[in-house]
Amino acid sequence: MDTSQEMPVGVRIYRYSLGGWVWSLMRVAVFAALGCLLLMRDYDNSPGGPLFCWTIGGASCLAAVYFVISAAYSVVIFDRESVTVRGVFFTQSIRRCSVSSYLVDPGSRNEASAIRLISNSPGEMNLDVPKLYAFDDAWKQWISSLPDLTRQRKEEEDARFTLK
């Protein structure tokens, strides 16, 4: 194990960044608006009737509430031993000593949506860490000490195309 895996960091808790909050609030606004429009609709002219409007409208309002709670409650916990992603309905963790590399999960418009920490332990699952959080230099230093499989795969792919 290299020294970057052993560096003392204490316990760091990362919450949503400003961009993460904006993204979450945009989803809240869309679902809340849809829910309110359906709940206040004129039921006499709606094709599905009041039951359909109340069902979809109520579900949309509940989704909006979930996104607010999720943004406030979700965290990434980074300590000496592990990395943990805690959401509203789940908690997933990976031991830092078992992380061998990482992949950047491409999102839309060539922006990364998550970092997948790859485990070298057979019984341990990989961990996806969304890039919605405000990470500090300790996290960035630790990630940069790991091999970037995304870059390696891109270089291999570029080499294959140049050889043809």
How are the elements arranged and paired?
Elements (H helix, E strand, L loop, with lengths): L2 H4 L5 E3 L3 H22 L9 H25 L1 E4 L3 E5 L4 E5 L3 E8 L5 E8 L7 E4 L6 H8 L4 H15 L1
Antiparallel strand pairs: 1-2, 2-3, 3-4, 5-6, 6-7
Helix pairs in contact: 2-3
Shape: elongated
CATH architecture group name of the largest domain: Roll
**What is the percent of helical residues?**
40-55%
Number of helices: 5
Query: Number of DSSP strands?
Result: 7
CATH topology of the largest domain: PH-domain like
CATH class of the largest domain: Mainly Beta
Count the domains: 2
Provide the β-strand percentage band.
15-25%
The N- to C-terminal Cα distance equals: 38 Å
Main beta-sheet annotation: 4 strands, antiparallel
Radius of gyration of CA atoms, rounded to a whole number:
21 Å
The secondary structure category is: alpha+beta
Spatial order of the strands forming the largest sheet: 1-2-3-4
Multimeric organization: single chain
What ranges have pLDDT less than 50 throughout 5 or more consecutive residues? 1-8
